[in-house]
């Protein structure tokens, strides 16, 4: 059985299609139609909901944390033990007045921030999460990062940006959801009998193992089960490509897979830990990685998606892979035979083909301690800055001694059937002096490393040209102190509001 | 045609001119504003999903539905043979086929529908139908269509003077060409219709459409029934932008067809990827020009050809390409002009209306020509633009309409000053010299956009106003609400007319059984037409009330005023609600229809002469951009807009339209990249690979002001239409990007820049500019 809290109502489900998303469940089974389907692929944000999750801090205190997710990507089974908050719970009552509204709703009305109103419930939920998690107005850039995954086709966003700030101008409204959730969780804990939460519909099943042991046993029982973590990719296979798997095993609540440790700078990141739960630790050591993580999907996707999902999926265009490869990260693969550790760089074989064996599951990633002289550059090129798939993703990590490059690891996405190292470029960089011309020279090896494709995102010619130019940009940023002007603005970057 | 003394009404004060919130705003933020998919489904409601053709061009050889029929929950599969009436649903000219049984003309063209218990089952089963086809070679390239004269409608041209001579005799000549990308509407609410049998033996359709009357007509025609058999209802749309003018109809027809055969309610909703594949978009265009001008840059003659990429059928393309031709001058006077327009037939979905209706694809030619002349003469583009503006004595368009209002001259002057054009231009030039990688650009572009449907009979509207005996008011009109705030504005007009509070007016869904024979809510005309019709209804009721007061209280009608919920006359006053009750008790009718038809317009298409537009709406935008010369990435850092909405009925809603249109136009010109692959399949078929602007793309500084000027024509409260015109202000962004790129050659050359100006196209233009400069550096 799956149990969770919907607004203020405890829900128990057992008989249900294992591939049902929360969005479809809300709209077709519960009549909760305030949550809209704009695209059903996690790109528009109209179906944004809040998902509350119990967290335990270092002192053992529990609290509930509310984050936005795309309900079209959240499988019903993954909601177990969570608190789903929909737009219907923000202001209750049939005919509220302006002053009855929650501050984020009132602000949006007063700023004329809804026109057709279809994206509006999603916008409200993203604004609400921001309001709950930021006690004071966090600034325009934070608003942009919070709402980058909420598309609006009518307003041009100006009034929405204004509303995000205006919401803080009224008397602050307390968050009522944690208290509901704590009560629900207490009753859930008293009922819990150690069974693996599951859903079934005829022969089709969904399992939500809570421990690595349970997972390994299930995987042995159902070797061809489909694995899912955050579901940001897999849910689309189910709802749009109409995949109908017999057995789905979700890794999202395997507690060993949701850990995070910083051992003197060596990072251990559980494969099922969503991005938003580890990036801050990552930034402590690699602030340069913000360029990728802040632009990876949307806030909703970063609250659901995981490293295990991205790497496990073996997409040639996922942004984490080039970063992990360039940082010489390794990954643990768990099976009933135990755990083996491999380099992320050795994981990919060919398009969507990897060294992962059928009984193995990715459990953890380890990023080595940052070498003292490491310089890291992460560059993403896409048609749009926010919530877009990389045309090219280039990550370069070099080490240097005095003025000489001693080590180089360069990995790129979007340039081949797999995320791949640029070994010719690396070789051309090593032993060169740390100056712009070394990078421009090394860039000429791009054709030895890659023969990219032309597709909907760009031509092969652009991919090659821009990769070369990015190496030049990196050279300037690494080597020229004047790469930032007097106002600390990079002379190599445009000033897009989301950067 | 009757007109109203608006200035007198206005002096009375009231709702008009106030920034009222959108009438549904509170419901929208609470998630309780229901769209067509949100209302509870009728008991036993079935779901239909289309079966799509697997090839781009060819003929169906066989269809095997056995696997689909075997799926549990599948009720019926319907084909063209099951359509009792007309199969062609072309809105103006035939060519749009509801379901094809023989010839396939674009990839994904609907062949059948599967009707099943649930949406998921219908969709899953639709994929199990096997269609075998004989493939033929599709035409996908517009230049191939042009060379083969493959048209959906015959070519047409506008002529004034002898442009060939004028060009040849001019001191300078220039030629140029541009490919202009299409645009997916990306209304957040996809296409949907729910049809059900009604209690009176007919069919009731709730759907997301800008044109309920056309849906009514088409449903009736495919079912071989009178129009009165069908009632179409639209409360609100989750965005439309032209994409629900004709494109909402097929799904409503198919749902109604299923109702006809199965006798129960049927819903049809397209998944987003199929909505992308099966609905028309803004027409891509390929245009070229030849102009002659003097040493100052003053145009003497222009020869412009616009080629619209229409897709497989006419749909609205005749009028869309006409509008592109009407706007190829934008705000500039061509003393002699030849404007040719071709409607090219290619094997894609049939392209359709989209905010601007071809106007943008024509208007870009004016801006392209101005920038190219400036580069050629080494002058600032703004100088060239100002020089060529329509002005008194230089005021006849290529279609022989006289431009009577010349406020653009003043609007540009105002923005030049408030936007600090010349100082910023100087600062940007200095910045570009010192910045090797990032280049800035600045451009100011005007918009002059013609208001009226160019199909004359559409310029009419109806409304229905009831005053209940407690003084509350029910309003209905023929326009549809898609987010633009039409209902809000018309409620303001009605409240203003009666001198009552805005809240006294309640608005209900647009229904063909309430207001018949309506025009689409399109061409920016919603408020102009329906607002005037509603005001007409109000005035009819008011006239009865005034007559009643005159008799009942024995007062002079001249002394009667309606203001602040009170009716004041020489002997006293009475509240509006008391008056309503009193009038009812004295058997005075408190309900009226209202009707309006736009005056003055006429057009002889064969001659290309007349006054197709009642008036023009104007705007000016000044945009500043940054361009990365290593990657082609670009961003808009500041935009200043001055826009002419006449006397605004609701400044907040008008500014919302301007901002939204600008950002949508910016998306069309920068990130929104529609692509079809070489097989004719749409390659950018969802929001994952088709990128509309996101929140960070909004200009970092965005100043929008309304130009203070009443419409000289007698429109409703002297306002002007606002839906489409500001879309084209976004040319300032495209032009500013060209300006930034041009700095690479010290502004001596301006490279062609097709749209959308994606990072890839911008980088390619930069490379071209740099290599030109290398060659000509020492000239």
Automatic annotation (TrEMBL), chain A:
Keyword Manganese: no
Domain FAD-binding PCMH-type: 199-372
Keywords carried by this UniProt record: FAD, Flavoprotein, Iron, Metal-binding, Oxidoreductase, Ubiquinone
Protein's gene: xdhA
Domain 2Fe-2S ferredoxin-type: 1-90
Protein name: Xanthine dehydrogenase small subunit
Domain of life: Bacteria
GO MF annotation list: xanthine dehydrogenase activity
Organism from which the protein derives: Pseudoalteromonas distincta
EC number: 1.17.1.4
UniProtKB/TrEMBL annotation, chain B:
Cited SUPFAM superfamilies: CO dehydrogenase molybdoprotein N-domain-like, Molybdenum cofactor-binding domain
InterPro entries tied to this protein: Ald_Oxase/Xan_DH_a/b (IPR000674), Ald_Oxase/Xan_DH_a/b_sf (IPR036856), Ald_Oxase/xanthine_DH-like (IPR016208), AldOxase/xan_DH_MoCoBD1 (IPR008274), AldOxase/xan_DH_MoCoBD2 (IPR046867), AldOxase/xan_DH_Mopterin-bd_sf (IPR037165), Xanthine_DH_Mopterin-bd_su (IPR014309)
The keyword RNA-binding belongs to this UniProt entry's keyword annotation: no
Transmembrane segment boundaries: none
Domain Aldehyde oxidase/xanthine dehydrogenase a/b hammerhead: 30-137
Pfam families for this protein: Ald_Xan_dh_C, MoCoBD_1, MoCoBD_2
Record keyword Cell membrane present: no
E.C. number(s) listed in UniProt: 1.17.1.4
Superkingdom per UniProt: Bacteria
Main EC class the enzyme belongs to: oxidoreductase
UniProt entry keywords in alphabetical sequence: Oxidoreductase
Molecular function GO terms recorded: xanthine dehydrogenase activity
UniProt-listed PANTHER family: XANTHINE DEHYDROGENASE
UniProt-recorded name of the protein: Xanthine dehydrogenase molybdopterin binding subunit
Native source species: Pseudoalteromonas distincta
Gene name of this polypeptide: xdhB
